[in-house]
Amino acid sequence: MDVREQHLDAGQQRRLEELKAKAEGAAGLTDDEANELGYLYALEEGQPYARHVNVPIEEAVKEDPRLDAEEVERVKEEQEGGGDSAQRTA
Fold first, then answer.
1. Quick one: how far is CA 38 from the chain centroid?
2. Residue of 22, 72, 21 lying closest to 50 (CA atoms)
3. Quick one: how far is CA 37 from the chain centroid?
4. Which helix (H) or strand (E) holds 42?
5. Which domain holds residue 80?
6. Which helix (DSSP H) or strand (DSSP E) does residue 19 occupy?
7. What global pTM score does this model have?
8. Domain total for the chain?
């Protein structure tokens, strides 16, 4: 299924709201929660999501098969120091 055609289900929407509230609180989010929030934002917006931590591209694609070839190349460039992390999406 194309990522642009996916939508949050009720459980994911509820979790998104929980994480958004926690992110605004004093405690903030753990790295795993931040990744989950990023994934949910991306899913909500119909965009691919690559985790913010350095993992092999093959592993990232297995975790989120919605990554397309262009996104994979962008992530590779970032990891190799050739990409501008300020331009990251989701």
1. 4
2. 72
3. 7
4. helix 31-45
5. 3-87
6. helix 10-24
7. 0.54
8. 1
Q: Which two tokens stand for residue 76?
A: 């590779």
Structure tokens at 36: 């989950």
Q: What is the pLDDT along the chain (90 residues), one digit of tens a residue?
A: 555 667 788 999 999 999 999 999 998 999 889 888 988 988 888 877 766 556 666 666 666 666 566 677 777 787 787 545 444 444
Residue 87 Rama label (left phi>0; alpha psi -120 to 50; beta): alpha
The closest of 43, 49, 48, 37 to 8, measured between CA atoms, is 43
CA distance 28 to 39: 17
49 in Cβ contact with 8 (< 8 Å): no
